[in-house]
Design a protein that fits this description.
single chain, mainly beta, 0% helix
Length: 115
Amino acid sequence: VQLVESGGGLVQPGGSLRISCVVSGLRFSRYDMNWYRQAPGKEREWVATIFTSAGDTRYTDSVKGRFTVSRDNAKNTVYLQMNSLKPEDTAVYYCRTVYGTMAYWGQGTPVTVSS
């Protein structure tokens, strides 16, 4: 199982960014997908989840109304659209899934929100 994130970068406060995670090694459509982030000097925190059933989604309170998680099962890809970005959104963003009894993580993509 392999997860590869991309799309991170530098963006000004109030701006937008979409990051992606391509998954291989499992039947993607059957698995819930999660986004986490880790800010400098802080613990990794859960950001969002998209479930397999009808694309149901969940978000941590701090990103509700600003971030949108989506998936394209034909492309084995999960996305995180981030709008109205704030400096406190600066972090390395990771995608994660659980396959069997193992949790799999990508290598992360850095997002910096700064003027």
